[in-house]
Amino acid sequence: MSVDRTENKNDRKGLAQVGYCLKYLMNFLRPYKGGLVLGLLMVVVANITFAVMPVVEGEMTTQLFSDGEAILKGVEGAHVHFDVIFGIMGTLVIIYIIKTVSQLITAVFLTRVLQQAMCDIRNALQKKIQRLPVRYFDDHAFGDVLSCVTNDVDTLSNALQETLQRVLAAILTFIFVIGMMFYIHTILACIAILIIPLSLIVTRFFVTRSQKLFDTQQETLGELNGTITEMYGGFNEIILYNRQKMALDKFHDVNDRMRKASFRAQFASSLISPCISLITYLIIGSVAVTGCLFVMNGTLLLGNLQAFVRYIWQINDPLSQISQLSSQVQSAFAAMGRIFNLMDEEEEVQNGKVEIRPDKVRGEVTFDHVVFGYDDETLMRDVNFQAKPGKMVAIVGPTGAGKTTLMNLLLRFYDVKGGAIKIDGIDIRDMNREELRQLFSLVLQDTWLFKGSIYDNIHYGRLTARKDEVISAAKMANVHHFIKTLTGGYNFEINEESSNISQGEKQLLTIARAILKDPRIIILDEATSSVDTRLEKMLQDAMHKVMDGRTSFVIAHRLSTVRNADLILVVDHGDIVEQGTHEELLAKKGVYEKLYHSGTSLANHQPVC
Ligand SMILES: Nc1ncnc2c1ncn2[C@@H]1O[C@H](COP(=O)(O)OP(=O)(O)OP(=O)(O)O)[C@@H](O)[C@H]1O
Fold first, then answer.
1. Keywords in UniProt for this one (predicted)?
2. How far is the CA of 520 from the centre of ligand 1 (A)?
3. Tally of CB atoms within 10 A around 106
């Protein structure tokens, strides 16, 4: 893309923003310029025919009028010149055909070009989102980003599909029609074009008032959506606490405000069209009266007066749509702004100085005087530890202590602000991020499975894996027998919310996926209370198998896990306050000992001090 990305998006306003959006849009339209140019050319052709039609139709009236006048006056040899009338009718048929064909060509080519460009924009956005750094989502809601790919592209697509043609047609209509009117009669044209400033004044008057009402309508709509989401999200709780009436009352209240806001906004904007029609009728009346005088004094043909009246209606059409078009254009630019700003977001840099071979990595992890904070505030002041290859490290600490943050840094979702993290002595900042992440598998409590078969969900861990490897990974993860009990076995379809299998089973499947990847280092977040004892044992067993021979980090909740660990890191307020084996830490009688004796779960306590 050749758009200048150096300027700050917040600095762009007004025309600069419009220019930026159009330039960016052109980059997506350029590959289809042939179809685009042809489509737009046909809009011009259709509008020329549209402007010529009234004059040709008027010629027929003029001819009939003069023939009729001659017959009535008893002029010798007077008759209706059917040859001329049929000639004009033939010309009109040709004009109608040209107009229809050009409109068809426009519809086919413009639709194809725009839909191809929209498809490219969606692909580009999807690619972009995958390259965004994790920190981008700290201050951008997922829903908002999702809305950019779906709603904003849709808004842009609809606006371009309808508005591009209509705006261009309106501009051309003004140019051609006004040109024709001045060509026919200057004074009458001056009266007729009064319709433009008068209509603009009326539109402006109503648009400025209705815009505020539309804003209120959109805000209330947002509130209504929020209420509905809340009601469905808490569906079970509402029933459990018997609060259906309360929820319904709340919904009725917002819905009623929505009704009032929508009525006011729609009413205000619906006044525009009748007011413009009134102006049009007044202008037509003035043109008709003045035009008759010109016809009587012979300076205007009757057919041309008829053409004038048609022209006024032709101008009226785009004028009465001006507010609708302008709001569509505005929302298209708003959508483009969001889309292209997202495309300009800084990407995560992938390049690394050191090439790593996953099969050669031993898996020694060192945190060397690591300093880190998500924002200006420092969370980790000086973190130091070393995980030996193939050993198990348990991380314990109260909620919000920084356990997940340690792992976020190891995976380079965020970069350290001081010190270094090393794998086999190599600073991870010198590694290519993709290659680095290739070394890890992640088993989290918030399991992620996608809509698809169980087989595909496990196979996702290593796409080159054979079927027998997938099955043996499932066996190692203790999930094979469970899969066999399902209808269709490995072909059983997991639904969109993965709600047709249990939480523990989901976690076993993610362990199978992690085993299939065969990583050097594994990060596990132990399941807490959401599973029963039998499943808990299966999970523990599966976790031990996946950890075997690999460097593993476990955010530990269970005493048994911690006891077995080769190294325990006690995290508090971001820093590692104690480290050692279970026995060493108990002997210290410090924070770990307090945590250990305070309950069964070693993570998610309240802060220690
Ligand atoms: N993306 C983020 N942006 C800003 N602050 C964050 C972010 N993620 C975590 N934090 C903050 O950093 C601190 C450590 O969070 P972290 O998630 O690492 O704790 P944790 O020990 O894993 O907690 P838990 O056991 O509850 O999951 C917390 O104060 C948290 O609010």
1. ATP-binding, Membrane, Nucleotide-binding, Transmembrane, Transmembrane helix
2. 26
3. 22
d(CA 215, CA 220): 9
Where would I find the H helices in 132-152?
142-147
Closest to 207 measured CA to CA, from 290, 313, 300, 321:
321
Residue with the smallest CA separation from ligand 1 atom 5 is 374
In sequence order, the 6+-apart residues with CB closer than 8 A to the CB of 97 are: none
Rounded-to-integer distance, Cα 249 and Cα 560, Å: 51
Nearest 5°: the CA angle 158, 160, 164 is 135
Q: Which atom of ligand 1 is nearest to the CA of 406?
A: 18
Per-residue pLDDT of 410-456, as tens digits, reads 999 899 999 999 999 999 999 988 888 889 988 887 778 888 899 99
Q: CB-based burial of residue 574 (10 Å sphere; 0-12 exposed, 13-18 middle, 19+ buried)?
A: buried
**Contact between 367 and 48 (Cβ < 8 Å):** no
Chain length of the chain: 609
Q: Whose CA is nearest to atom 6 of ligand 1?
A: 374
Lookup: tokens for 420? 């270094």
pLDDT tens figures, 144-170: 777 788 878 988 898 888 888 888 888
CA of 401 to the centre of ligand 1 (A): 7
Residue 405 Cα: closest atom of ligand 1: 18
**Ligand 1 centre and the CA of 125: distance in Å?**
28
Rg (CA), the chain: 36
Q: What is the 3-state secondary structure (H, E, C) of 379-410?
A: CEEEEEEEECCCCEEEEEECCCCCHHHHHHHH
